[in-house]
Amino acid sequence: MSEAERILVTGVGANPGFDLARSLQRLKHHVICTDAQPLAPGLLLPHVTARVTPRADHPAYGKAMLQICQETRPDAIMVGIEHDLLPLLDVQRPLAQLGVRMWLPDAASVESCLDKAAFHAVLSQAGIPTPRTVLPGQLRALPQGQLVVKPRRGHGAQDVFFCSTHEQARVLCKLVPDPIVQERISGTEFTADCLVDRAGRATAILRHRSLVKAGLAAVSTTFHDQEVDQVVKQTLAAVGAAGLSCVQGFIDDSQPERVRITELNVRVAGGFALAEAAGADLIGQAVNGLFGRPVDPARLAYRPGIFLTKYVETLTSGDQSLLPTTPEAP
């Protein structure tokens, strides 16, 4: 087991950050939780240090995070939500001067994953199968049929709509913020929980997404598949991934391109607990890599056929006046 550290986890209002905080607690680390929502469930976990931040798109976010790190003295930051990535990279140098570590790809790699149009371009250039993706003015490049309209920089399946004609897609593009249009593909949906060590060696734990609700795998099962593993690792290499990430895609045995990749998130997945239940020491090894210690690939081996189900539970209730408050903007 790795040494006990003080680790700050951002975005603990969503499943990835919340479960990451709990996993770090089980590993006996002291966890500092941050979120822009005072009622974020991760801020209410027992025995964590809770801090409320401005939204990641607020100009004061970086300064607020530096102040929180000065007060709470974390040894490292682990990101639980995509929005925090770029503003944290902007203050990476002053964070390092405070002794706070991060393990993230460079800004260009992060941007290629946050921007779905850029992600499509990177994968297409690398020859990795992925759904055809166009901007609203390029609709004629897609055939009439099953289409998906979604935000170019969205997450969590928000503002995602399905349609079947170009005319419907044009209307939806007026409603969806900064939209893209993709062909809708079918098959068996999967997620790969990934860790790329500092030598560039990638490990992927594969799981079927049997039931998906609001973008989160509510029911999933681990599996082994050499071809899927290979395509996932090609995707990680194409974008220059580092540390924790998750890759999503579809498997369709009826298609010439059996495996197609839909996205890569530069954070832990919402269902990563299944990787750990199947025997992979995903968070423990990620912490090792974060602190410059060796990552042991043997500790990331996992068993197929292990399942996970997730459900909504009531965490706690209490007096709202006792909640932490958002720092005032300068």
Main attributes of the structure:
alpha+beta, 330 residues, 14 strands, Rossmann fold, 24% strand, 3 domains, Dna Ligase, domain 1, globular, D-amino Acid Aminotransferase, Chain A, domain 1, four-stranded parallel β-sheet, 28% helix
DSSP helical segment count: 10
Overall number of domains = 3
**What profile does the largest beta sheet have?**
6 strands, antiparallel
Oligomer: single chain
Uncertain ranges: none
Overall 3D form: globular
Strand content: 15-25%
N-to-C order of helices and strands:
EHEEHEHHHHEEEHEEEEHEEHHE
Main CATH class of the largest domain:
Alpha Beta
N-end to C-end Cα span: 41 Å
- In CATH, the architecture of the largest domain is 2-Layer Sandwich
What helical percentage do the residues reach?
Answer: 25-40%
Tell me the CATH superfamily of the largest domain: ATP-grasp fold, B domain
Count of β-strands: 14
CATH topology of the largest domain: D-amino Acid Aminotransferase, Chain A, domain 1
Look at the helices and sheets and give the structural class.
alpha+beta
- Mean of pLDDT: 92
What order do the strands of the largest sheet run in, or round the barrel if closed?
Answer: 13-12-9-10-11-14
